[in-house]
Structure formats: structure tokens, C-alpha cells
Design brief:
The two termini are 16 Å apart. The chain is α+β, with helices and mostly antiparallel strands. 28% of the residues lie in helices and 12% in strands. The model has no long low-confidence stretch (mean pLDDT 89). The chain has a two-stranded antiparallel sheet. It contains two helices and two strands, in the order H-E-E-H.
Length: 64
């Protein structure tokens, strides 16, 4: 989504290279996705489920 839309940004972090971030965000499995610091899920998601989570995050107060 971040590639296609200039209003969306994404960062990819290698947990082994940044253990402090892995600990902060309680990474126990990969991929771990965190959206706006309030929605998170682990594991590969079907496209529709991923989109659903993004839309859910965009509707939360303080999301933008």
C-alpha cells in the first residue's frame, strides 16, 4: 500500500538487527505488523484481512 499511495508510509525493521525495537514491540513472530501504534497482528494475512485492519486503524481517534 505504501508503494502505491503517497499518504501511506511503511518501515521494515529486521528484528535481529534492532533487538531493542523487537523488545519494545514484543515481536515473537514474523511478520509482525503494527499500524498507527494501536493495531497489530502477526503472520501473513490474506489481502482482504490486511485491508480490513488498515481501515480499522484509519477510523480510530488520533489516526491522522
Amino acid at each position: 500500500m505504501a508503494i502505491e499511495n503517497p499518504h501511506i508510509t511503511a518501515d521494515v525493521i529486521e528484528a535481529a538487527e534492532f533487538p531493542h525495537l523487537a523488545q519494545t514491540y514484543r515481536v515473537m513472530g514474523v511478520p509482525k505488523v503494527i499500524i498507527n501504534e494501536n493495531i497489530e497482528f502477526v503472520g501473513m494475512q490474506p489481502a482482504q484481512a490486511f485491508l480490513s485492519q488498515v481501515l480499522k486503524a484509519s477510523q480510530r481517534p488520533g489516526s491522522g
